Predict the structure.
Amino acid sequence: MATIQLEHVRKVFPYPLLRRAPDQTENAAPDDDTGSPHTSEGIVALDDISLTIQNGETMSVIGPSGCGKSTLLRVIAGLEPLTSGRVLYDRRDMADVAPGDRGIGIVFQSYALYPHMSSKNNLAFYFRMHKREQEIDEKVRITAETLGVGFDTLLGRMPSTLSAGQKQRVALGRCIVRDPKLILLDEPLSNLDAKLRVQTRGELKRLLRRFEVTSVYVTHDQIEAIALADRLAVMRRGKIEQVGSYWDVYNRPANMFVASFVGTPPMNFLPARIHMDGISVEGVPEPLAKPGDRYLPNLSVMLGIRPEDIQLAGHDSSAISILAETVEYLPSERCYFVYSTIGDRNITAKIKTEATIRRGERVPVRFILEHASYFDPKTGERVA
């Protein structure tokens, strides 16, 4: 096991020599609000990343496509050279340490099994390369026991005869058979169907808990992140926006991007103003009562409210009437997703009720403002 530290890590991919840097006045290179930014230097995949992953911790890195998640994993592994900054394992700078000497195990989305070798030989390859053949049988036996019922039946089979789930189990086995001090996982479950994903996720969680090995798990699937990780790192445009437990990130997002990215459906945002009489929300006729006195008056904010914090209200004067423009029922949770509009903003409410909500009905709701978040409408940063 190891404590991993990234100190002011920066990774820039230069533009190809035959292509000039993009002129900011032209549409020469895509540069949206989520992917890596384009500069005169090149594509900034990682921008001043500082992060500590504690010994034995599982850190999940989430973010939109192109934000730098996989590049971060490759930098930790030593597969990509740094533009600047340092990567340390147990306070040792890894600048001059080759990937093969770092004591890491990597599991990719694509399995990366040797197609001409049986499953057992895939697991044994590392030991043959290092002339440690006397360890093979014992290491493979322990790994088969660890990976649970049925894994030993896969050892004599070739990768071409295995299902997607079986291939991923063998890939996991090849990763742990060498007793790595760090495991790096790059969306390892994304090729599996829903049922296999749940099953393999459970096996993976059991393995990580059993070995207590330091792990970095890159995924875009928040359910996987919640199930496996001790902490999350949320990335956007090559930067880390927030680090914390899932519930910390979910309940106290650092900014509007994190609030909108973490959680399904995402947080609702409504322009509002806080004053002495309460909170005036655009599109709501009456001010809402303030939850306590901790908010400054006369402050324009973006009110952030989670779908589950919009609940049914009685037919009283304080209720907000919304039109159920679209309705979805979730039998497993006995709740409705109600899609509506307040002012010029689309909102989603997650309402638990035994009653039936139909499209086209007006539904009286109330906001649970004790759970609300407040953001600066210009910067998007959290203010309360």
Summary: The longest helix spans residues 194-211. The two ends are 38 Å apart (CA to CA). The helical segments are 69-77, 119-129, 136-146, 164-176, 194-211, 222-228, 246-251, 256-261.
